[in-house]
Amino acid sequence: MGRTSDAKEKILTAARSLIELRGYSALGVAEICKTAGVPKGSFYYFFESKEALALAVIDEHWAAERREWTRILKDDAEPLQRLRQLFEATQATQQAGQDSCGTISGCMFGNLSLEMSNQTEAVRERLQEIFEAQVEMVEAVITEARARGEVTVADTRTAAQSVVAQLEGQVLFAKLYNNTSPLNALWTNCLALLGARTPVQV
Amino acid sequence: MGRTSDAKEKILTAARSLIELRGYSALGVAEICKTAGVPKGSFYYFFESKEALALAVIDEHWAAERREWTRILKDDAEPLQRLRQLFEATQATQQAGQDSCGTISGCMFGNLSLEMSNQTEAVRERLQEIFEAQVEMVEAVITEARARGEVTVADTRTAAQSVVAQLEGQVLFAKLYNNTSPLNALWTNCLALLGARTPVQV
């Protein structure tokens, strides 16, 4: 009972939804199981601890987001246009979240970085790996754009980190104001941060 | 007993320190009182609720930070140099925090924005006011720089918000990596975001 094949998935879905709504610290195992509709015993059958569950939620969310980032950033479009599409997709995702539940939940990885990175080293390390992967994906696109003479930036790694930092900062404002309009600035700011040589077709 | 003149200050100090370490949700009133060394009864003598305490902690922290921002941003130095000094002061504060307690605690307002803005409207509104005040202070400096022909930005408000967003995003990375080096990029990125006309003396 409760250890049916879908109990683990139900726990993950409930945990993800509760973490997006209220963060990690405010959650208890009992509440997660109640929301998931599974007995508490099944939680510890699938997960060693609340931390193990958090890591599983993070991994599942990143697997989906990485597929989306890969689809966009490894596309055939011109490099800077791919970055633009990434920002538009981010805005669309946040808008869809607001449309469905009334609030903008922001970036799960940014949320958990600020909430948890000084509390559990396992979560800190996982989030570091995810942001490193994001920065690498953005850096690859910047490197392509530079080879085409479209951007003038000297240090592609630092530039990529700055683009992701700008994204996280504007998503913070979108969440705080419960309004996606701060994300409108991402494309222009990205061009400025990269020292784009010429006005890119918009 | 416990309602002595310094009990309120002790509760605020303990709460601030615990919020910086672990965020708001993970805290209980009993723990705050134990850390402060005051009986639990005095908590409710001074604060109606944990939320009221959070607002008091936020207000006290912003009063101190606003004094620092005002000192730097309303200085006689050239406008862009004042922004540079703001970034250097931010980096020094984060570094001092790490030197004293081993971890970078980040920006309390950014931390609480991501943790709490979808949980309590009173905290959300207070944090909105604080970030609006920060953006206004930065915008005033950008407007001065533009009047001197040093920056080319069209919309000073959006530019100021982008500078603060970049600050929050890089502070997020500093906290995640427990390393202040992402903050090294703030000055160069600020010049890029503002479309600084000429290489400013560094």
Query: What distance separates the N and C termini of chain A?
Result: 56 Å
CATH class of the largest domain in chain A: Mainly Alpha
Query: How many strands, which pairing sense, and closed or not: the largest β-sheet of chain A?
Result: none
Structural class of chain A: mainly alpha
Identify the quaternary structure here: homodimer
Q: Could you name the CATH topology of the largest domain in chain A?
A: Tetracycline Repressor, domain 2
- CATH superfamily name of the largest domain in chain A? Tetracycline Repressor, domain 2
What is the number of independent domains of chain A?
A: 2
Query: How many strands in all of chain A?
Result: 0
What spatial form of chain A do the alpha-carbon principal axes imply? elongated
Q: What is the overall pLDDT average of chain A?
A: 93
Radius of gyration of chain A, whole Å = 19 Å
Please tell me the CATH architecture of the largest domain in chain A by its name: Orthogonal Bundle
What portion of residues of chain A belong to β-strands? Answer: under 5%
Order of helices and strands of chain A: HHHHHHHHH
